[in-house]
Amino acid sequence: MRVKSYILTLMLIISSCVSAQKTVRVNAIKANDYGVVYSLPLTTFEVTLTIKKSTYQRGDFYTFAQRYLAIDNPVIENRVVYTLEDINVVNRGIPDKNNTYMVAFRPKSVEPFVFLREDGLIVSINAEQESEVRAELIIPAGISPSENPRRYLSQETLMAGSTAKQAELVARQIFDLRRSRNDILSGEAESMPPDGNAYNVVMGEIDRQEKALTELFAGTLETEYFTKTVVIVPEQNNIDRQVIARFSEKLGVVDVDNLAGEPIYLSLTNKTPKVDMQLSAKDLQRLESKLSEGIVYNIPAKADLAIEFKNSVAKNMEVDVVQFGTKDVLVRKMFDNNKQPVKVYFYPELGAVKQVVQ
Predict the structure, then answer these.
(1) Measured between alpha carbons, how far is residue 337 from residues 32, 36, 66, 111, 126 in Å?
(2) How distant is the alpha carbon of residue 100 from its chain centre?
(3) Which residues contact 180 (CB under 8 A, 6 or more apart)?
(4) What's the CA gap between 43 and 92, in Å, rounded?
(5) Which of these, 161, 97, 123, 166, lies nearest to 22 by C-alpha position?
(6) pTM over 0.85
(7) CA dihedral sign, ordered 113, 115, 118, 122
(8) Is the Cβ–Cβ distance between 301 and 320 less than 8 Å?
(9) 332-355, pLDDT tens digit by residue?
C-alpha cells in the first residue's frame, strides 16, 4: 500500500505529560475470521518548548535602595520577560489510516491473539504486552514574591508624612532585624530561644520579615514555567530550516507569521534516502501481493533532526522516521506452529519489529 504524502502541519497546544496509551487484547477467533485489523503509524515529532515567565515589580522605595541599603540594581520598572529555557523532542506514532492491515491466522492456530493500542497501532502478537514507560517532562518550580510587606510596618512608619521618611524608618527596621539575628547567633540576645524548635521559629520569622521589607527597596521577582508544544508531521521529503514557531522576550511563543518573535527553525535530513526504482507492472503486482499476505511492518530510516534558534543549534539528534523508510512482511506460515507459537514484539511508535521469539 502506497504511503500518502503528508503536508507539514503545525499546531501550538498546551503541553502536558502524556501517559502511555492503554492496550487491548484481541483474540483471533472464528467470529472475526481469525483476523485482527491493525494500523501502522506515521512519525510525528512533538517539539516541546519550556518557557520561563519572569515578572518584575518595583518596590515602593526603589529610589532609596542605594542610599539606605546599598542595593545597586533594584527593579526600577514593572516588566515581564520570557526566556526559552529548553527544547525537548519526542517521536510519536499516529495511526496512518492509509496503512491498515489484517493479521490473518489459520483456523488451526493455537489461540492466536494480538495486543493493540487504543488507537489501533500494533504492540505484539502472541505475546503479553511489555510495560511502556514514557519519560515525563519535568517542569521546574517557579518562585513567588514574599507576603505583603506592609503587614510588618510599624504604626510610626504608616503615619509618616512622606515616602522618604517611610523609607528611612523601614530601613531602620531592617537593620534592627539583622541585629537581632546576629545577637541570637552570637548568644548575646537578652531573650534567647529556649530550645531548638523555638530557635527555628524565631529565626524563620526574622528572615521572612527582612526579606519582605527589603523587597520594598529591591523589588520583587516572580517566575513561573510552562510549556508549548509544536506537533510536526513530516512529508517524505527533507525539511530545510522550516519555521515551526517564533519566540519573543516580551510575548513568549507566537505564531510562525508573527514577526514580533525570532524564528525557531527545524531541519530534518534523511541519512539513507531511497533510490527511485521504476518497477514493471509485474513487479508492482508482486509487491502488492507480498504486502497483502502476512504481517506488514515498517522499517524506519534514520534522519538527522536539528533545531536552531538565535543563530545557534539548540537541538541536534538522530531520529527514526517512518515516512523515510520502507515496509516488509512477516510471512504467515511463521505462525503455523501449533506447539510453540511465534511471539512478535513491536515498537508501537514506529510499527517496526522489536523482537521475534520462536
Answers:
(1) 21, 19, 85, 12, 12
(2) 29
(3) 189, 206
(4) 6
(5) 123
(6) no
(7) negative
(8) yes
(9) 777 776 667 788 999 999 999 999
